[in-house]
């Protein structure tokens, strides 16, 4: 597998920053507490991983295209044998330049002291706000102190810019090494979905399938789940962010599994819906076929020449036509779309960008227009239908059915590449796999 080339990412960003005479400051983040003093396993921010590949907490990267001696400076924790006994090994300042290919490395404690001087000569700072928290205050304070450079006739940042137009534009278009990592994430995730399909039986707990998926992915070296796994039997599938996973799977119900694991911190995001007992009922099959047709229509739009919204619109047309045909919706397609009456059954969008983050960065609109798809972009295609248990506007036989089918699609110069195609969506193939 090609390794992620963080050095190439830094060089590309430095070029963009130079055009705007901007510096860029990115933080790794710190461990988060789950409860009391019990920490989650640390996972760096995706911006930081993209630019460094470094996985220690409490670290920052500064890029200064006008820096005289160094263009990339890593601020990291110093070696500390006593602390390392408790919280793990540290690379340390002395080894960082050679290990990571940055131009300079300094102790993280020096960051805010050094920052004003390093920012001199730059007109803007690219930095992602922490929403008015302590980090914002430290950065604003450094910018205020940097202003003294103006008295010497040097520029200092007079603006702070969110990373959307620079760093996040780069992350939106995946290079070959990133695509390879995403293919690996897709491969281990789809293996796990197939294992869960084979293992499912009436009477099992939802969390048994969750555990199965975790086992399959982590035993293949996944860095972890890209988001909290959803295993939703029956009407639980109509709760979009259901994560309790503690109900029993009932004979005759469907089960929806939305689970995606990472490879080297690159996400996958896959949903399959299948019958707990291995056979679709006629109503389940009818709605399933409709969602699958919507997904096929949407994936067919994932090419250059389409916009991001075209993908959603293609799915929506198919879903709405089917809902009308089967009597769940009245009126015409145009009326249903205009009045949004379909939203009772389809309340989410069809796609989001995916990459290092499952809901990856990148603008969806440009000048108010849905953005055209380009080679290297990767998006999910995940239409669904959800009929609430208590929806008395529809015949009883439809109630409590929730279905979503989700794949990750790479836009190429030609046909779309479905990264997660290795787990079946065809209902006959699903029944055969489960038999
Ligand atoms: N699993 C998160 C999503 O489908 O967007
Ligand atoms: Mn998704
Ligand atoms: Mn998903």
Descriptive notes:
This protein is α+β, with helices and mostly antiparallel strands and 435 residues long. It has two domains: 165 residues, Creatine Amidinohydrolase, Chain A, domain 1, CATH 3.40.350.10; 262 residues, Alpha-Beta Complex (Creatine Amidinohydrolase), CATH 3.90.230. The chain has 14 helices and 20 strands. Strands 6-5-4-1-7-8 form a six-stranded mixed beta sheet. Strands 10-11-13 form a three-stranded antiparallel beta sheet. The chain has a three-stranded antiparallel beta sheet with strand order 16-19-20, with helices on one face. The longest helix is centred in the middle third of the chain and has 24 residues. The radius of gyration is 24 Å and the shape is globular. It binds glycine (GLY) and manganese (II) ion (2 copies). The site of glycine has 7 residues, from loops.
Index terms:
binds glycine; 36% helix; six-stranded mixed sheet; Creatine Amidinohydrolase, Chain A, domain 1; binds manganese (II) ion; Creatine Amidinohydrolase; globular; three-stranded antiparallel sheet; 435 residues
């Amino acid at each position: 597998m090609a390794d992620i080339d963080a050095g190439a990412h830094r060089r590309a960003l430095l070029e963009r920053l130079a055009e705007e005479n901007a510096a860029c400051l990115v933080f790794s983040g710190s461990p988060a507490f789950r409860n009391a003093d019990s920490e989650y396993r640390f996972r760096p921010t995706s911006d930081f991983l993209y630019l460094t590949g470094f996985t220690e907490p409490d670290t920052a990267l500064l890029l200064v295209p006008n820096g005289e001696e160094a263009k990339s400076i890593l601020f990291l924790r110093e070696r500390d044998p006593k602390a390392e006994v408790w919280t793990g090994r540290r690379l340390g300042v002395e080894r960082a330049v050679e290990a990571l290919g940055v131009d300079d490395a300094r102790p993280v404690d020096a960051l805010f002291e050094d920052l004003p001087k390093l920012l001199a000569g730059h007109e803007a700072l690219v930095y992602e706000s922490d929403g008015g928290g302590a980090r914002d205050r430290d950065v604003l304070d450094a910018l205020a102190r940097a202003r003294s450079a103006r008295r010497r006739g040097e520029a200092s940042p007079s603006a702070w810019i969110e990373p959307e137009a620079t760093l996040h534009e780069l992350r939106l278009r995946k290079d070959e090494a990133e695509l390879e990592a995403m293919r690996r994430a897709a491969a281990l995730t789809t293996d796990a979905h197939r294992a869960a399909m084979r293992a499912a039986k009436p009477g099992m707990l939802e969390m048994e399938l969750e555990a199965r998926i975790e086992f399959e992915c982590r035993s293949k070296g996944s860095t972890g789940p890209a988001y909290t796994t959803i295993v939703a039997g029956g009407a639980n599938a109509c709760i979009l962010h259901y994560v309790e996973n503690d109900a029993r799977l009932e004979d005759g119900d469907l089960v929806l599994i939305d689970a995606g694991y990472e490879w080297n911190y690159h996400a996958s995001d896959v949903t399959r819906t299948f019958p707990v007992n291995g056979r679709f009922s006629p109503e389940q099959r009818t709605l399933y076929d409709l969602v699958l047709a919507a997904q096929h229509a949407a994936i067919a739009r994932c090419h250059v020449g389409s916009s991001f919204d075209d993908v959603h619109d293609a799915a929506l047309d198919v879903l709405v036509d089917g809902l009308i045909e089967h009597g769940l919706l009245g009126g015409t397609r145009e009326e249903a779309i205009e009045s949004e009456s379909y939203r009772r059954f389809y309340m989410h969008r069809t796609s989001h960008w995916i990459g290092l983050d499952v809901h990856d960065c990148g603008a969806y609109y440009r000048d108010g227009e849905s953005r055209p798809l380009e080679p290297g972009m990767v998006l999910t295609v995940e239409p669904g239908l959800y009929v609430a248990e208590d929806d008395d506007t529809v015949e009883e036989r439809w109630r409590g059915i929730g279905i979503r089918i989700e794949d990750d699609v790479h836009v190429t110069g030609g046909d779309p590449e479905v990264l997660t195609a290795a787990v079946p969506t065809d209902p006959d193939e699903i029944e055969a796999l489960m038999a």
